[in-house]
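Data deposition worksheet. Section B asks for the primary sequence of the deposited chain exactly as it was used as input, without tags or linkers unless they were present during the calculation. Section C holds the resulting structure in token form. Section D is free text for depositor observations; keep each observation to a single sentence. Incomplete worksheets are returned to the depositor.
Section A, Depositor: J.P.
Section B:
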Amino acid sequence: MNLSTIKTTSVLILKWVLICALIGFFSGSASAFLLVALEWAAATRENNSWIIWLLPIAGFIIGLSYHYYGVIAVRGNNLLLEEYEKPVAKIPFRMAPLVLFGTIGTHLFGGSAGREGTAVQMGAAIADQFTSFFNLDKPDRKTIIILGISAGFASVFGTPLAGAIFALEVLYFSKISLKSTALSFLVAYFAYYTVAIWKVHHTHYAIPFVPDFSLIVLAWIIPSSILFGLAAMLFSRSTHFWGASFASYIKYAPLRPFLGGIVIALVVYIIGTTKFIGLGVPVIVDAFSNPSGQFDFLWKILLTGFTLGAGFKGGEVTPLFFIGATLGSALSLVIPLPIAFLAGLGFVAVFSGATHTPVACTVMGMELFGTEAAVYIAFACFIAYLASGSVGIYHAQIVKGPKYHLYQKLKRKKASSL
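Section C:
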């Protein structure tokens, strides 16, 4: 290798390290602000329960902002997946403030949603602005989208390894370059440490006791994980059903969250509890130590699917944590395994099934709960992934890997039998 080649390579490496640092800092800072804002929104809502009656008005304002200013940004995470697969136009920066304030409004006034979608969309919108600044070509722009997703996910959940792998896995592993892989991990850590610099903390979960490895424990995990996968399927299909229904029957988009907000406020009033709206983090934490109600996970599926389908903003992942943790916690009443253990498995397994990302979810489980449960976590994530069907929470996601081949084989077998 001559001096000129070494110099060119060094400049290229420094350029990408700088890009990762910039994306990590700005995305991490945006996530830190989001986390603080959502904590404030939750506290304000719980201390002023009457505010839920303003949800229809908040929904109408959110709907108007996206209708007149959102343009393609309204497609959310699906836009990121589409732009990665077939790059057409730069992700508009306006996606970041629109989804940020739309999510804060959704949580403040009583919608049921998450935060991952918001962080990932902000990360990608911020990252894609560097495409023109650094004069990057189409292949490099694909890398930029990966970096934005990685930074957003890693910073909002405090799981850099899972964030990096999620960005790669959700975009279909085999089409990812070695360069993108390395940079995805680098930007994830930049974003993760940026949140730490801002002194913003993440919620900690723990599995205090992990059963010794045995075939009996694995035998109990199989039916549990199938149920986790079915819950993921129900959540995905519910969200798509409500989205399609609102779009079909209410043509003027801003009216969808307005009318949806009225329904949600009435439902919360009738059931007499706010435990199923917002992020639901206190309920998730409680699920690790006390058995959850047998229908808690179903209420979260219903209200989150309806909230997002109506056009409110936020993510799906924290609600998936809620669904998985409460389902696992409730199963502890009939399955002879520790409550925190089942809640932890459900926490990551339902997420795995709904996003088709079993590897990222396994790593996330190890980051959150420790490596002692690694085998069980992997087992649960892959079974839930296989049991959750071919439809996930992202319309534009290309599903490949073991699930894809399994369902293709079943389709061929069904076609040959006709």
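Section D:
The two ends are 62 Å apart (CA to CA).
The chain has a mean pLDDT of 93.
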